[in-house]
Every structure is written in C-alpha cells, then in structure tokens.
Amino acid sequence: MTWPQATNGNLTKITMGSVTIYNTSTGGGTLNTSSLLGTTAQRTTAANGGTATLTFTFQHNVSTNASNYTGTATFNPFGSVTMLP
Hints:
Blueprint: H1 5-8, E1 11-16, E2 19-22, E3 54-58, E4 71-75, E5 79-84
Antiparallel strand pairs: 1-2, 1-3, 4-5
C-alpha cells in the first residue's frame, strides 16, 4: 500500500477486526510485507460470506482525498483484493 507520508506520517498499526496484525512503525509512504502478527486463525475469515475489517492507524490524521492512497491485500488461496482507492 502507499500513502502520503508528509500528511499521515508513519503507519503505526494494522488491525484485522480486533486483532493487531502489524505494529512496526513504518515510514516512507510504502508498505509491502508478509510478516504479520497473530495466529493464522486470527487472520482468517470464513470462506463463504466471511468478512473482516482492516484498520490502518497512522501517526497523524489522514488525508480525506482517497486518490492519495493505493492498496492491495492478498488472501491465500483466494487471491488479491484491491482496497484503495
């Protein structure tokens, strides 16, 4: 994913539902990682109709311009989902 570093500052945390799956302060406006926290079960949703909310927490308030952000998440074995914009 990418974000406007000057506006948001560092990415500080990602949660999936209520579980923190990433908590390394990351700058530069870019994140590409497969090093996630929590168990596989905590990072899994049901195959049929399962949902989970990914929440990204930044150092500062975020820009309200969605075009400043890009993002894709890959869920095995289902493939990639474009999250932003």
